[in-house]
Amino acid sequence: MTECNREAPKFHDLGTREIDAGFTGGNISSDGGGLLLRELERHAGIVRRFAECFTDHRDPERIEHTVYELLAQRVFGLALGYEDLNDHDQLRHDPLWAVMVGKDDPTGQERPRERDRGRALAGKSTLNRLELTPVGADAESRYKKIAAECRRIENYFIDLYLDEVRSPPAEIVLDLDSTDDPVHGDQLGRFFHGYYGGYCFLPLYIFSGDHLLCAKLRPADRDGSAGSVPELARIVGRIRERWPAVAIVVRGDSGFCRDGILTWCEANRVDYVVGLAQNKRLTAELAGEMEQAKVLCEQTGAAARVFKDFQYETLKSWTRARRVVGKAEHLPGRVNPRFIVTSFEGDSRPGRALYENFYCARGNMENRIKEQQLFLFADRTSCETMRANQLRLWFSSVAYVLLSTLRRQALPGTELAAAQCDTIRRKLFKIGAWVQVTVRKVWVKFSESFPFRDLFAQACAGVAAYGARLALLDPPAAARPPPA
């Protein structure tokens, strides 16, 4: 092979000292902290359980990268900030990445084909087959033979939640929301959405706290609440299989104030607190309270709120009257009336507390959606088909589950206990590390000048403690090896 002379980069001197820089440091990875994700995965099996939702129709004698290894590479890539499949054509040379994924040959020197030696991991073309395998693929298919079982993946997120929580809480709150996923090509399912002012998908999310339970990709040519009832029925049914008597509350903004959703909740012992868009009849009902709030605001110079409970029924769209809580708010220079509809009785949940302490808390879910879209690339849906883009959304969702589990189980008491994914990535994962692979050891030496080494040590101790807690369970998650 032709050997190319690569000139070393040139930099200005530092006083009397010459700066001599070059790519001669050996195997140095910028993702040394990724070992923390590997340890979490070894204990919790989040990616392993995700791999069980795929059927591999490939010839076992010709497989170099198992489904688990491919998915681990893909999910770890998103968690570590690599949004594009093209990135993996470079990452596959990094032996530390091979260690994270679980390759027995981290240097790739034992691969059968000479052209692949030195590249322990899969490239973009192999990873691409995960999302492009069509429905109905089998052993007779030519290239794409790793079939995702969508129903199993949908239930996978609920099962992770149930297995982590272990015992029924006093109350489960299911937060529903939809958001825009802008598209810039001619993907199947793209439509112009007037509210968001562009071509997009309209995914539906359901969270319980910071636990992701549903990430459903939908075309944008429909109501934001479309498909909510089937998803709620599936999630509530799955939860009640485990905890039959648990109290469940559905919470959402006015986009989910649809009679079909409210009626389903009433028929299935599910309470709800949902925003209600204002109209002339509602504001007229609140006129007296608005005047009171105005007087209070003028007296104090600060925002004033007065609440009112009343029964309300729409002229056509609702099948029955329901309890509504109105917030009459007057601020200096403007008014801000708001309404929610609820199945709770007034004695059990007073209107002010229901609005201020319960309904407004749904804003935390919006932060979780933004976190996934901005930092884990949930909006990287540039494939041609809806199925492929749905899988990309799920890959991002698994990366979110991995990082939120780390935050929830290993980082309490640290400065990252409430940090967003990008902050965790920057402070814990992006560590320079020198890597050497020998017959008996993989040497990983972190940068001595790493500024967050104490924080990293706390995180490692937290992961180990979480693993010890899991090991006490029956059966322990750690006892199940990654699938072949």
Name the descriptors.
17% strand; 17 strands; alpha+beta; 484 residues; Transposase Inhibitor Protein From Tn5, Chain A, domain 1; 38% helix; 16 helices
Secondary-structure map:
Blueprint: E1 28-29, H1 34-44, H2 46-51, E2 54-56, H3 67-79, H4 88-91, H5 95-101, H6 124-132, E3 146-148, H7 150-165, E4 171-178, E5 181-182, E6 191-193, E7 198-201, E8 204-208, E9 211-216, H8 228-242, E10 247-252, H9 259-267, E11 271-275, H10 280-285, H11 287-300, E12 304-312, E13 322-331, E14 334-335, E15 338-342, H12 351-358, H13 363-375, H14 386-410, H15 421-429, E16 433-437, E17 442-446, H16 453-471
Parallel strand pairs: 4-10, 10-11
Antiparallel strand pairs: 1-16, 2-3, 4-8, 5-7, 6-7, 8-9, 11-15, 12-13, 13-14, 13-15, 16-17
Helix pairs in contact: 1-5, 1-16, 3-14, 7-8
Query: Fraction of residues in helices?
Result: 25-40%
Kindly name the structural category.
alpha+beta
CATH topology of the largest domain: Transposase Inhibitor Protein From Tn5, Chain A, domain 1
pLDDT averaged residue by residue: 92
Which CATH top level class of the largest domain fits? Alpha Beta
What is the straight-line distance between the termini? 36 Å
CATH architecture descriptor text of the largest domain:
Alpha-Beta Complex
Shape descriptor: globular
Share of β-strand residues: 15-25%
Largest sheet: 9 strands, mixed
Q: What is the radius of gyration?
A: 26 Å
Give me a quick take on this structure:
This protein is α+β, with helices and mostly antiparallel strands and 484 residues long.
